[in-house]
Specification:
The protein is an alpha/beta fold. Helix content is about 35%, strand content about 25%.
Length: about 425
């Protein structure tokens, strides 16, 4: 019977079932605030585009707590009406502009290129596809702007048959590394990834389950229990059951993304680059030690990871900058050491170094690596999300200022190891 229900009836029933629920996807105010912090500093009265805003929980928070001017977009008019009502009640009506539009076709006069400082999409990008969203929305960002897009992902490499069957029928999932690869292929670099906590699912599913129970208690013969609603109830019951049975195998990952710097082409080094890589490192530092270190690491099979030796090309195709990640260990656990990072003097302070570091870190995420350590300028490496390693109980085996020994968690679903950093022998420490 449900096979003959048209899409419009299903959509109407879905929205009816979800009407005035607190959230339309897993999330929480605490997670929204944490993601805002990961997105980095915003200008005064930032211009925010909230796509697939639903009833506007995030839009209201963004307007109230960071003073944002929010353009909130959804196709379902009752959600927009609910948001306008809530915004007016909170005195935020002048900061939130509810717009009925299709997030897959943001080509109208209200969406010129470069018009937003932050694009926000909690649990909504699946409507058009994560890769399509990343590719198409970045044109709307002002210089220095960022996107926060959350996506449901596998948190295991071997999902159960029941979980895979459900998601194959309801939007195939990727793993975290595969999702990162999709973002990079779409022209962005990853600033941060947050695997949302299990509690974020409760804020969505507990009210939804209560709504299903109350709706099912209605006499099936009474007006309002349409075939579309029967379908919506059955689909939601299945979704809730799958979450109960297989919830440890998938979750929402929130990505903070920025467009890659178009001035620099980044890629793994090739054999033809070795002489140029040596020259860039020799020119960037007072001595040849870093250049010789790269050569020594290249000869260490336990340390060298060819796909994590990265170059940035100058406009003429020469090597402008270089970044290297090699295998180290924290106690017995594998990690990566970022060193050296070098930029040719002719291209310093032009973004080449940052571009090549971001590309190397993205490549590490795609490999499924979980942790990077780096010894260097705290102000510089904080731009990539690095924090003092001591916060995690990680320490070097030599004396350095605490703030200079830094760490970056690439995958927060993996426990961060504690202990002393064991560098490859070529580092001599």
């Amino acid at each position: 019977m449900t096979d003959h229900i048209d899409d419009a009836s299903r959509t109407e029933a879905f929205f009816t079932l979800h009407h005035r629920l607190p959230r339309q996807s897993p999330g929480s105010d605490a997670t929204t605030r944490r993601l805002l912090a990961l997105a980095g500093p915003l200008p005064d009265r930032p211009r925010v585009l909230d796509l697939g805003c639903g009833p506007g929980r995030a839009a209201l928070l963004l307007a109230a707590e960071v003073g944002a001017e929010v353009t909130a977009v959804d196709l379902h008019q009752p959600f927009l009406d609910e948001l306008r009502e809530a915004a007016d009640a909170r005195g935020l009506g002048d900061r939130i502009h509810a717009v009925r539009a299709d997030m897959g076709d943001l080509t109208g006069p209200g969406f010129p290129p470069g018009s937003f400082d932050l694009i926000w999409a909690e649990g909504s990008a699946y409507c058009i596809g994560f890769a399509t969203a990343v590719r198409d929305w970045q044109r709307l960002l002002a210089p220095g702007g960022a996107m926060m897009i959350s996506e449901c992902v596998w948190t295991t490499d071997a999902p159960s048959a029941g979980a895979r069957d459900f998601w194959d029928r309801n939007g195939s999932l990727r793993t975290l590394p595969q999702t990162t690869a999709a973002a990079v292929a779409a022209g962005c670099t990853v600033s941060a990834v947050l695997l949302q906590p299990d509690g974020d699912w409760d804020t969505y599913y507990v009210p939804l389950a209560e709504r299903v129970e109350s709706t099912e208690s209605t006499d099936p013969t009474a007006p309002g229990m349409s075939p579309g609603m029967e379908w919506a109830l059955a689909a939601t019951r299945e979704e809730l059951a799958v979450r109960r049975a297989y919830g440890a195998e998938y979750g929402y990952a929130a990505y903070v993304l920025r467009p890659a710097d178009p001035r620099w082409t980044t890629r793994p080094e090739t054999a033809a680059d070795r002489e140029a890589v040596h020259a860039v490192n020799a020119a960037a530092f007072p001595t040849r030690e870093e250049a010789d270190l790269v050569d020594a690491l290249r000869a260490d099979a336990d340390a060298w990871l060819p796909e994590l030796s990265y170059v940035a090309e100058a406009p003429d195709g020469s090597v402008a900058a270089y970044a290297l990640l090699t295998r180290c260990r924290i106690g017995a656990a594998p990690a990566l050491a970022l060193a050296p990072v070098a930029t040719s003097p002719a291209y310093q302070r032009q973004g080449a170094g940052q571009a090549v570091v971001r590309a190397a870190l993205d490549a590490a995420r795609v490999r499924g690596e979980a942790l990077v350590v780096v010894l260097g300028d705290p102000d510089y490496y904080a731009r990539f999300g690095c924090v003092p390693a001591s916060r995690y109980g990680i320490r070097p085996g030599f004396e350095v200022p605490d703030e200079a020994m830094m760490a970056l968690v690439l995958d927060d679903s993996v426990p961060v190891p504690l202990g002393m950093i064991r560098y490859p022998a070529a580092f001599g420490v």
